TrEMBL record:
Primary residence: nucleus
Organism of provenance: Penicillium argentinense
GO CC annotations, alphabetized: MIS12/MIND type complex; nucleus
Domain of life: Eukaryota
InterPro entries: PMF1/Nnf1
Localization: Chromosome, Centromere, Kinetochore; Nucleus
GO terms under biological process: cell division; chromosome segregation
Keyword annotations from UniProtKB, A to Z: Cell cycle, Cell division, Centromere, Chromosome, Kinetochore, Mitosis, Nucleus
Name of this protein: Nnf1
Amino acid sequence: MAEQSSQATGAPPPLGLRASRLHQVFDQALARTLRANSFANFASCFPTPSRHVPASLENVWRQLNAKLEESAKAEFEEIIAEREAVGHLNELDRLVNEARERKNAEGKNGEGQKTGNAPHTLGADELFKAHLTPYLQEVQSSLNEKLEETHVQNAELAQTVQKQRLEIEQLLSHLESVVSDIEGAATASTNFSAENHLREDAVQMDEELNVRPGL
């Protein structure tokens, strides 16, 4: 009834046992991925910024992790909504519970007794459920495959982050080279100014000597 009410209002259905477990597995996998990209590991890739601007580097690390987490969760929720996974898993929970209750009831009736297991004795609703169960199991298998794909995509995202680290490191190395060139140019300019000053003094002394008579 709660699921029908949520469908009528357009709200997502509440999470059943299997749907909750699916979200839990995803959250655990994502948490492991984010833990692997710790600040210590991230900072070890950029020793120069980690020594001189650790706060800025940590801010970059936090933004990268937040973006990774946001993208992974958004894609996961998109897959769940597209496949209507929560509703199907909730229906599977209901069918499993009914089957368990029916099995317990049959056990109470005594061994060897059959209580309406013949197909021609089943009602339309029970036949529908019997045909629906394999489909729901297939959906669950498909969701497991999608979850595995999400793990692979998370690994690819981690590789992308690593490439970005290398690019940032190359950029910082280039900046250090530019700073070194600027410092060299400043030193050369200072030396040139000093030499030019000495040259002017020599010219002035020569002019003074030429002006004096008898020299």
